[in-house]
Amino acid sequence: MSRRLLTIAGIILLLACGAKAEAPSPEAMSAARKLVVTLRIADQYRALLPQLLLKLRPVVAQDRPEIERDYDAMTAPGAEIYAPFFASMIDQIAAVYAASFTIDELRQIEAFYAQPAGQKLLSKSDALAQASAQIAQDVSQKAADELKQRLIEALRQKGHKL
What are the Cα distances from residue 100, in Å, to 62, 103, 117, 135? Predict the structure, then answer.
């Protein structure tokens, strides 16, 4: 889940900083929207909404049971309250993709992720990212320990007392 949060945060950062001033063509936007759907980015956002709404609940409902009941009904899964945010998010993310890739590249990327190997990569990407991060952390720690010893020894050979 942490990789998904980072992905969404990165996309938001790209939206804020990296979008070109020129609007992508309708054809590019169509190809980018299709890719965003294939990548299941909206599903990742949907998975984060319950956490967001749970944090908002005490602020909005103010510990009043009558408000909490209505709040829960209004924010139930499938409620229309989400629809504008999903549509806006899809369009904005699609615009980032459309500005970053050519139409042909978007189609090639989407074609890959639509295939079984691409779907498998999507389903395993969180676990792969976590395992890769752990390996990098372990190797970095081992390298730091070994380099520290080598540097201390080299400095001692130069007459430094450590």
Answer: 44, 10, 23, 30
- How far apart, in whole angstroms, are the C-alpha atoms of residue 14 and residue 3? 16
Residue type, 27: E
User: Could you give the angle at the alpha carbon of 118 between the alpha carbons of 124 and 18, nearest 5°?
Assistant: 90
Span 16-56, pLDDT tens digits: 555 445 789 999 999 999 999 999 988 888 778 778 888 88
Region 54-67: mean pLDDT is 89
Residue 8 is predicted with a pLDDT of: 64
Q: What is the DSSP letter of 1?
A: -
User: At a CB cut-off of 8 Å and minimum separation 6, what does 141 contact?
Assistant: none
Query: What is the per-residue DSSP string for 53-116?
Result: HHHHHHHHHTT-HHHHHHHHHHTSTT-GGGHHHHHHHHHHHHHHHHHHS-HHHHHHHHHHHHSH
Phi/psi at 34 (5° precision): -60, -40
Please state whether the predicted TM-score (pTM) of the whole model is above 0.85.
no
- Residue 23's closest CA among 99, 134, 121? 99
Contact 48, 2 (CB under 8 A): no
